Every structure is written in structure tokens, then in C-alpha cells.
Amino acid sequence: MAFQKPTGTQDLLPGTVEKWQLIEEKARDLCRRFNYREIRTPIFEQTSLFERGVGETTDIVEKEMYSFQDKGERWMTLRPEGTAGVVRSYVENKLYGEPDVTKLYYIGPMFRYERPQAGRQRQFHQFGVEAFGATDPAIDAEVVALGFQYCRELGLQDVKVEINSVGNPASREAYREKLLAFLTPMKESLCKDCQSRMERNPLRVLDCKVDQDKFGDAPSILDSLDEECTSHFAKVQELLSAMEVDYVINHRLVRGLDYYTHTAFEYKAQGIGAIDTIGGGGRYNGLVAEVGGPDQPGIGMALGMERIALILEKQEIGLSGVKPLDVYLVALGEAADKEITTQLFKLRQAGFSAERDYLGRKMKAQMKSADRMQARYTAILGDDELERGEIALKSMETGEQRTVKLSELVNELK
Predict the structure, then answer these.
(1) pLDDT grade, residue 181 (50/70/90)?
(2) Mean per-residue pLDDT, 102-121
(3) What are phi and psi of 245, to 5 degrees?
(4) Where in the numbering of this chain does the Aminoacyl-transfer RNA synthetases class-II family profile domain appear (predicted)?
(5) pLDDT for the residue numbered 189
């Protein structure tokens, strides 16, 4: 029986992995500059964490979670997103005791049972950031700008940011009444999910992919914002403009999670078929308390790394992932073969990438192997050279070859 990878997953093979490493390195470097520190949380958590944190009326919780009972008959779920686990860790490890704003980032796999298509896998990877402890609109703008700058530094073209304010609980309650008045006459024509959400969380209806075209005349939540929410949203826009972040306001943007307050946003880019959202996020001032911690404000964003990689490919933005080999060692003769093993290890200890033949091939085949590995140099050792304590060093770019002392090989390459 030939085994195959599970539906909705993919193997990242050598040659592709190096490009992913560059994508990840860019995220780490950017977070260092923005002063975010890495956090690594478990891949599975208690199911109830996501039910409370993400929201029971979301597609994620209702349809997409990979949940299972462990041997202790506890319900566990493979994490469908990163924020809930980070918030749980923030509370459990009392990071709220820190005197400064707690700024964290994560990179890792998430899991959702979805219909696989371009840019949508059942195991996918996200790069995300979370900032806790500040209500200042400047931190909202910083988080939005961080994600935008990440896309810009990778070279992605035509990335846009859509932003909205989903207000505070009082504003949302006022909006809920207006939205229900708009939706009720059309209730029977809406899909079953929308009909159900009208009762429990009407804002979720605006996130429906089936009936999206019916909501063109829906009232805008921006008209229901109180003075505090309006002022906060205006300041976020002002700061984004100051940082030259390319944004537009989308008053129907509510995002697919229940925990957002005030700022909500998405990053849009063309190149992955029907899906154009490559990430997003928002403020979640009540989430820390909901998960059992003190009432600390927070804001975060996450970007889908498969989608980023796909767009880089579609836009033909080349990431030179595979690094050339520093030196390939060629042995001609039994004594030379033994010495090559010693020299190879010394080179690796000194920080060089180095390789040799393990298949007993002749010199011509070994030189071809060095070519395939894009070696910058080959070092050729025969038994005669070994007796003289010498080795031939050849530049693969120029073809120039010279003899150096074996004891000086590392220094010569440096």
C-alpha cells in the first residue's frame, strides 16, 4: 500500500523549504525591529478555549475545528488560529504583570477542516503578532503597519489594507438593532447559517460568503459608533496615513471571529483565485477577561504563509532560497579518502558548508556533483598531495586552481 499525505496538507520539499525559511526570517527580523518577542504555544488546547475565545457563532467553531477526546476523555482541539492560545498563555503565565506593553509574535501551523483549494489548506501556517496592555490607537496603527510592511519588504505588489471599526459593546448593541431591522424582511431568502446567526449574532451575517451580494444597502456600523469609538478610529486612520499605509475603509468588514472591538482590518492581494484575503486582525479588549485573566486590552494580526508564498510565485517574485555550498571535497585514493573526512569536519566546525562524495564515484562524477550543489570551491586531494601535506583548491566560478598547504585550508577559504 502506498501512503499519501492527508487531504488538505502538503509536503514542503528541499528547494521550497528554503524559500519558506526566507519568508520566516523576514518575519523574525521585522518583529525584532518592532520589538516583538517570540512565543510558542501548544498545537492543541482545550476545546472550550476556542469556543469561548473565538466565539460559538463563528464558522471556525461551528464547522471547521479538528476536535477529539483524549485518553482522559477531555475534549481537545488542534488550534484553528493563534490568538486564543497566546491569550491563554499570557493569562496563565501572568505576563500581564510586566510593566510595559507585552508584545509577542508566533509562527506555526494551524488546522481547520475546510474544502481545500488554492491558498486554503487544512493544515496551514500563520505569522502573527499580539500586543497586550494598551488602548492607545498608536498600537493599533503599529500592528496594521507591521503586517503591511512585511508584505512590502517581501516584494508583494498591490497589497491593500481594508479597515473598519466594530465599536464597543454599546455601539454594537445600537448597530445590532439597525442591522436586524434591515435583515428581518429578507430572512427567508437567506441561507440557513445566516438565519441562525440572526438570532445569536447578527454581525456574523455580514461575513457570509453565500449571501454577500444581498447586503449592499446594509446600514454602516460607523453610523452607530459613540464619540469614544469615532475618535479612536479617526486617530488610527491619521496614524496609518502618516506611515503611508495604503488603506481603505470597508464598513461591512467584521472579520470571522467574535472577539473584536474597535479596529478590525484585513490585508488584500490578488493572485490566489477567488480568495484575496491574505491576513487580518483587530483589537480585542474583552478577550483576556473572557479567558479568565484581568481586563487587559489587546490587539493582534495574522498572515497566512501559504497565501503569501502563492502570491510571491504568481507575481514571479523570486526568493533565492537555496544557498550555494562553500566547498566540495574530492578524494582520490584510500589514504586521501580518510583525510578528507577529517578536513570536512574541520571546515564545518569553522562555519563553512561543506560536502564530499559517499558513493565511491570517480573524479568526473564528483565534480558534476559539486556543480549541482553550486559549490564555490572544490578541494581535490590525492595520495601524492597528501604525502606532501598539500591540497588543490579550485574556484568553480573562474576555473583557477592553486595548491595550498593542507593545514592552511580553513584559513585559505576564510
Answers:
(1) confident
(2) 92
(3) -85, 125
(4) 8-324
(5) 80
Rounded Cα distance, 198 and 203, in Å = 8
Q: What single string gives the DSSP state of each residue in 310-367?
A: HHHHHTT-----SPPPSEEEEEESHHHHHHHHHHHHHHHHTT--EEE--S---HHHHH
Give the confidence band of 395 by pLDDT, cuts at 50, 70, 90: very high
Check pLDDT > 80 for residue 322.
Answer: no
Max mean pLDDT among 116-120, 204-208, 267-271, 309-313 falls in 309-313
- Cα 385 to Cα 210: distance, rounded to the nearest angstrom: 75
CA 261/CA 203 separation, integer angstroms: 12
Contacts of 6 (CB under 8 A, 6+ apart): 122, 123
Give buried/exposed letters for 277-289 (b at 16+ CB in 10 A, else e). bbbbbbbbbbbbe
Domains and CATH numbers, the chain: 17-168+226-314 (3.30.930.10), 327-413 (3.40.50.800)
* Amino acid symbol at 146: L
> In the predicted model, what is the mean pLDDT of the chain?
90
pLDDT digits (tens, 9 = 90+) for 7-37: 999 999 998 899 999 999 999 999 999 999 9
E strands present in 166-313:
247-249, 261-272, 275-283, 298-304
The 10 Å Cβ neighbour count of residue 214 is 16
Q: What is the pairing mode between strands 261-272 and 75-78?
A: unpaired
Spatial contact of 165 and 255, defined as CB atoms under 8 Å apart:
no
Cell of 183: 435583515
Which residues are within 8 A (CB) of 240 and not within 5 positions of it... i.e. 6 or more apart? 141, 144, 145, 161, 163, 247
Residue 388 to residue 114: CA distance in whole angstroms: 66
